[in-house]
Amino acid sequence: MAVEPLVLLANADKWLTESLESVLVQGGYRVTATLKRQQVLDLARRERPDAILLDTGLDPHASDSFALCRSLRADPSISRATPIILTTAGPALRAQKIDALRAGAWELRGDPLDLEELVLHLGVYMQGKLEVDRLGDEGLVDRSSGLYNETGMARRSTELAAFTARQGLPLACAVFQADNGALTGNAADRLALAFRNAGRISDAVCRTGPAEFAVFAPATDETGAEGLVQRISDAVARTAAVKLRAGISAAGAQQHPARRSLAAPPAPPPSPAELLDRARNALR
Length: 284
Known about the structure:
This protein is α/β, with parallel strands linked by helices and 284 residues long. Helix content is 44%, strand content 18%.
């Protein structure tokens, strides 16, 4: 049974919030609501809503009514496919609509607020969001971090193993976990972003769990893997303030095909799955 899409509703008007929540629930949505501006980011990071309805007047003392929308759109833990619909008291002027679009909102709606039309618009946006989610689930990349997921890791590591075997090069694997236990929510996403920035273009950097990462590094032996671990650990400590534990494994360089003796064919190198298992065992 499919789970109803989740809408984050943030509006300081209690009566309007209750009215919107009632209409949304009748329309087949789940709703999490807040009347407080300071709770919006935390709720969005924790709940991962499929859409956000945000009132620009949530904080009447804010000098920039679109600042919170920009913060939501810039947060790496919130998908860019998540529609953000802004509402405002009074009519939505053209200049305000343009500012809303520049802040990352999908639209700005003013008074009088047509709830039926709003829910219909939301349904159209939601179809696109859920399709992006479906493709992400079936794809090769972890949506929240942009790193390879386990399916992508299996494909890319196989490609790297074939390439390094043909070229007679070593291949290393390193597995990392946060040293201070499991991380969740925004902390885990900051860690993933730090890994994405720390990896080399030639490496396959993969997210294999909320706070577990694997890196396949071509042309890297065991000594090089130790250096890779140190480099990534230092970069992550600087940018995400997380200490890492790591395990490594490496397949040694194979003799180039042109130089192999027909009488003594080399043993096949370990598969990427075997390298990954060895690295995990070393980590434990």
